[in-house]
Amino acid sequence: MVWTLSVGAAVFALSLAGTWLMLRWLRGRAILDHPNARSSHAVPTPRGGGIAVVVAVLAGWLAAQMRWPEDGFYLFVAAALGLSVLSWLDDLRGLPAWLRLIGQAIAVLVAMSWLGFGGDVFQGLLPPVAALVLSGLVWLWFLNLFNFMDGIDGISAVEAGSVGLGLALVSGITAHGAMGPLPGVSVAAAAAGFAVWNWQPAKVFLGDVGSVPLGFLIGGLLLKLAADGYWAPALILPLYYLADASITLIRRLARGARVWEAHREHFYQRAVAAGRSHAQVSLAILSANVVLIGLSLAALAQPWLALAGACLVVAALLTWLARP
Question: Under a CB-based contact definition with an 8 Å cutoff, are residues 131 and 119 in contact?
Fold first, then answer.
C-alpha cells in the first residue's frame, strides 16, 4: 500500500508538472485548438497536453511492472505509444479517418496478447473466436468513444479519474491482476494532475494524443477486469460514457449523419448549449461517477442488482443533461 500510494503521488506530480511544461511548449509553437461551429470553447487553447498524462500513466505502470512483472506488458505499452504518435500527427496535420482506424486496429491487435483472454470477457456466452473478435471491436469502440467525449473542460479528467479510482478499489479488494491497484491509481493520479490545468476555464486540452491512448489504456484495463470474471464492475464504471456516446451514435446513424465528423450532439454538449457551465456539467458527471464507483463495489456481491442501479443513475444523469 505504501509503495502504491508513493507511486501514485509521483504520477500526480509528474502529470501536474509535465502538463505545465507542455502548456508552455505548445503556446510557444502556437499548437492551438481554434474555436469553430462545433466547439464548446471560445478562445484558442493549446492542444496536446495529454502527452504529459500518458507519460505519467505509463511511468506508474512501469514502476508496477518492475515490482510485479506481467506477461505481455511491453507489447501493451508499445501499442499505446504507437497510438500516441499516430494521434499526435493527427493533432498536427489531420489524418484521414480510415488511416486512424487502421492504426487503432493494429494497436488493439498487438495488445490483445497482454490481455490473454479467450471467451471469458463475455463469460462463456460466445464461442472463443467470436468472443475474441468482439472484444477487439469493443476495445476499438471504447478508445474512440473516449476521444469523442472529450469535448468540454474537465470531462475527460473526471471520467479517467473516476474509472481509474474504481479500478484501483476493485483490484485492491479482489486481488485482481498481478499489478494490483497500481494501474488504476496511476490513471486516477495522472487525471487529477491534468485536471488542475484543464478545469474551467481550461488552459490546455488533452488533444487526440492524450484522449485516444488514454481511452486505449483504460479500455484494456476494463476488458482485463471483465476477462477475469468481474464483468459487472467493468461495465458499471464507464457506463455514463458508454451510454452517452452509444446513444448519440445510434441517433446519428438513424439520421444518416456522417458519424466520424465532429458535432455537438452528445448529452453533455447539449447541456452546455442549454446554458450550463462546463464546470457544472463535469461536476454532475463526477457526482454520478462516485455513485457508480460504489455500485461497482456492490457488484462484487450482487452484480445484477448493482447494474440495475447503475442504469438508473445514468438514466437520471442523461435526463438532467438533456433538459432544456
Answer: yes
**Residues 302, 172: contact at Cβ < 8 Å?**
no
According to DSSP, residue 205 is labeled: B
**Are the beta carbons of 76 and 219 closer than 8 angstroms?**
no
What is the dihedral angle through the alpha carbons of 281, 285, 290, 292, rounded to the nearest 10 degrees? 160
Alpha-carbon torsion 87, 282, 151, 222, what sign? Answer: positive
User: Which of 195, 211, 208, 203 is closest to 27 using CA atoms?
Assistant: 203
**Is residue 118 pLDDT above 80, yes or no?**
no
pLDDT in tens, 275-303: 999 999 999 999 999 999 999 999 999 99
Residue 81 neighbours by CB distance under 10 Å: 15
Domain definitions of the chain by residue range: 2-229
The letter for the amino acid at 209 is: V
pLDDT tens-digit readout, 160-215: 999 999 999 999 999 877 678 999 999 999 999 999 999 999 999 999 999 999 99
Query: What one-letter code names the amino acid at 121?
Result: V
Other Cβ atoms less than 10 A from the Cβ of 130: the count is 12
Q: For residue 318, what is its C-alpha cell?
A: 442523461
